[in-house]
Every structure is written in C-alpha cells, then in structure tokens.
Predict the 3D structure of the following.
Amino acid sequence: MLHSAVICLDEYVMKVVFSLLVTLSVVFSGQHNVSADAAVPSSREEITLSFAPLVRKAAPAVVNIYTQKIVRARQAVPLFDDPFFRRFFGERFDLGRNQPRTRKQNSLGSGVIVQADGLIVTNKHVIEGADEIRVVLADRREFVAEIAVMDEKTDLAVLRVDTEGDQLPVLSFRDSDDLEVGDLVLAIGNPFGVGQTVTSGIVSAVTRTAIGESDLNAFIQTDAAINPGNSGGALVAMDGRLVGVNTAIFSKSGGSHGIGFAVPSNMVRAVLRGVANNGKLVRPWLGATGQVVNYDIANSLGLKRPGGVLINAVHAAGTGARGGLRVGDVVLAINGHDIQDGNSLKHRVATLPVGETAVLRVWRAGKTRAVKVRLSSAPEKPRRNETLMEGDQPFAGATIVNLSPALAEELSIDPFLEGVMILRTVRGSPANRLRFRGGDIVKTVNGRTVESVSKLLDEMRRPADRWRVGFQRGGKVRELVINR
C-alpha cells in the first residue's frame, strides 16, 4: 500500500509541476522574447530525462589502465649521514645503506578505445616509465598493452593490444572545433581507482593555451569533475562521440575544483595519424615564429582590436616562406579559426595533415588577405650525422649532431639555430669533465667557424697544444681555453 501511495503522490506532483511550468511559460512569454525552440516538458518522460542511454553507448569504450614499474633506491638511514658517527665509525655505516633495493610502483589511469582492433589513446604521463601496462575493459577483460606512440608535445600516448581477432567497442570522433562554451559533456574515467565513474558538466572554455607542460594543445576546459585517475579518460559530447581526452586539473588540494582540461579530439586524431609512420610522429611545420598582438601593437598596425600573431621570423626552408608569408604579417586565422597567440598558432598547424593546403588570413599593409600554404614537415637539412667524438681531444665522449629544423622540432628547441650541437656526454669522459653538456652549440675552434660535424672533426684532427672553443649555451656565447 505504501508503495502504491508513493506512486500516486508522484503522479500528482508531476501534474502540479507540469501545470506550474505551463503557467510560468505563459506569464514570461508576454514579458521576454523566448526562443522558438524553447519548450516546457510535455510529458513525464521528458521531465525525467537521463544520461543513461548515452553512458551505455560510450562507457564500454573507456578502459582502466594499470601500470607497474620497478623502482631502484638505496636504503636511507639519517643516522648514517651524521658527521659525528661517520668520524668515529667511518664507512662501516655505508655497508647497509649502499645496497640497492627494488620495489614495485603501481599507478593507474584511463584510456579510450579508438579502433576496434585494439588501438587505445591515453596520456603519456599515465604510462611513462612503465615496465608493464595492463588494460582492463568495462566487461573485465584484461590485455597487456604495448606502446605504439608517445608524444611529449601533446602528453598523448597510443597503446596497442592483441585482441586475437575480437572486435572491441570504440568511441568515434567528433570535430572538437564544433564545441561551444555551455555545451553539455560527460567525463568518464577511473578516479582514485574506485572503478569506472561518470560525471557531467559543461564546456567552460575552448582553446585554452599555456596549460601544463604541453606546447601544442589548446585545451577544452570543463567543470565536469575530473580527479587523479581520470587522466586519459573520455570527454564525451551529447551525441555519444569523443570530443576530448581528459588530461589535467587545476587544483590546490589534489581534488576536483571544477576546472579540468582535455586534449581536443582533433589533436588526438593528428597524433593517431603518426601510428602509420612506424611510431615516429610527423607534423606540418609552418617555419615561422612571432609574438602576440597586444593593444599597442594593434593600434600601430591599424587593427581594430588585439589578436593574432605578428610574424617576426620566417625560415627560408619552411612552409610559410614557400607560401608567401612575410616578416611583419599578422596571422589572424587559419582555415577560419581565429588565432589568439603563438600557442594557438602552433596548435592549429599541428592538427592539420602533412600535404594539406591551409588558408591563412593575414593582415598586411593595412589590408586583410589570404595566404595559401601547402603544409610539409620540417626538413632535415643538413642531415644530422650523429657522431660520437673519440681520441685525445676536448670533445672526446661527446655525441654531436648537425642542427636542422627537423631535429629542432624533435628536441623542442629554436628551429632557427644552426651549426653543431652536443646531444649528450659520456660520464667521466674528457667532454664531461670539461663540463660540456647536452644543448651546447659549438661555434668556433681556435678562431675558425664550425658549421658542421665534418668541419668539427677536421678541426680536432689538427695538431694543437691548446684549444680555444667558443660555444653557445642558453643564448649566451662563451669561450673555454683547454691546454693539452
């Protein structure tokens, strides 16, 4: 009887609510302009709308990712570092603490199945350094995963599992550029390892740049609850398609404060294109750099409002130069998408395929014009010619390379740098003892300019009792004199 009474009361309340909504609609329609599409619920079913059908569709393609790595550490006993005890007991105290110990370190995250044959997208930071990666599906099937692609610049990784011919549930992509602030979204992942969890929210902002360590992303911001463990999970639009991969949160406590960030699906697709290139990502390269247009620059150039990127350098081998982009141009948009700053410019170029033609809207000499560029990858000219230096000379133990735009893109350094760079040094080698380090650019040896690896090899073969080496580090040129 009680159950029956509750149902009747519920039906009565629904009728009252429906009547009130109709009345309020009539009252306010006379005072405000109401959209023609706006309407009050016309049935009980519309009032009790649920995300459940959408979750049933999307959730099977979101996986839990468990990683494990072996951490080696030395035993630390503070007493052994006390100078008093070390003075009287010497190195005997080191016998125990210098023995390395190993332990297993576990971590967790989330991922999204994007191909039915076993291709999964997650965050790079979820699986970085892992010795073992296990993927657990919503139906509890487990797979050991291998890394297909890892991309530092977007914090994305692509995993591959052997399904033995089985077809896995997938999430199809939606164009993330269609998203608008205020759109409803769902976040699906494995926060704190409690199991698959769904939260809802809205898109708080689009194209957020300068978030985290990534330098190519223009993130989607959402207030859907995202917590540790959600990394790599799905941000799903109301049509059930993948619109982003949850990546980071802004938090002072480690928990969700309603500010979460997701890598847009268009960038995810761009990274997936690299899987076909044997795991080596190849991106289009504009070959131009610039600065954001602020209020003062906009006024000086005759622009009505700040925005865009003022180009201050164009590489002769770059796509931009071949398409006619010039120093002094202001790039306002690419393929109809507004450019706000340098990161936004990089992001837009990076989401496009190599070989595609992009249309840049630029401001030049007081007029707006279109510049068409056919996108290509950064060239490796000259070839890197990676060489380990040997012999009785200062650079022995250093691995050196020729700088090129392709190498600069790979190492995330200035693509306009030229010459010979030290990649790394062998510990204890002459180069290491002289404190040369990775990133140093050799400019001169004994007053002679060094343009290439072969030129440096020739210089170091010359008989000499002393070397005067000029090198660039951190934008400053230094000189080191070494006696034999």
Summary: The first strand starts at residue 62 and ends at 74.
